[in-house]
Amino acid sequence: MNQKSYGVLLLSFSKHSHQRSFVPLFLDHPRTRIVAVADEPDIEPYLKDWNESWAQELGVPYIEDVSLALERSDVDVVSIGHEIERRATLILKCAGAGKHLWIDKFIGANIEECDTVVEGISRAGVKT
Fold first, then answer.
1. Dihedral, CA of residue 25, residue 16, residue 114 and residue 24, to nearest 10
2. What is the Cα–Cα distance from 108 to 74, expressed in whole angstroms?
3. Nearest to 82 by CA among 61, 107, 63
């Protein structure tokens, strides 16, 4: 049986996320492969350095534009490890692009953001 393999986009290596802990899991799973690391261009320099370092270590591109990264046909799942203040917006952007989600911790910074995320994911029909 030939089972589908899923391309994983790693969205940020925030110091408060567990993204770096997920990397070995994605690498070891026979049906996932990491295809890129991405983030927005207006992030803190230290975060950009971490993202670039992880992309280099993994041998994948670092993309400084989440929208461009979401256009890639090899991205099936987005692992979201961004700061909580930006997480809801990014989750909705990814779901709106039809990408399934692996979400680290909280889906929003407050109950209103969490409700909006749940509604957006439901409308998009993606898995989380």
1. 0
2. 27
3. 107
Q: Which residue has the tokens 């991405």?
A: 38
Phi and psi angles of residue 11, each rounded to the nearest 5 degrees, phi first: -100, 95
Q: Where are the beta strands (DSSP E) in 1-128?
A: 6-11, 32-38, 62-63, 77-80, 100-103
Q: Residue type for 24, please? A: P
Q: How far apart are CA 56 and CA 51, in angstroms?
A: 9
Residues 6+ apart with CB under 8 A from 36: 9, 10, 55, 60, 61, 62, 63, 69, 72, 75
- Where b means 16+ CB within 10 Å and e means fewer, 19-49 reads beebbeebeeeeebebbbbbbbeebeeebbe
**What pTM was computed for the model?**
0.94
Model confidence pLDDT, tens digit, residues 93-115: 999 999 999 997 789 999 999 99
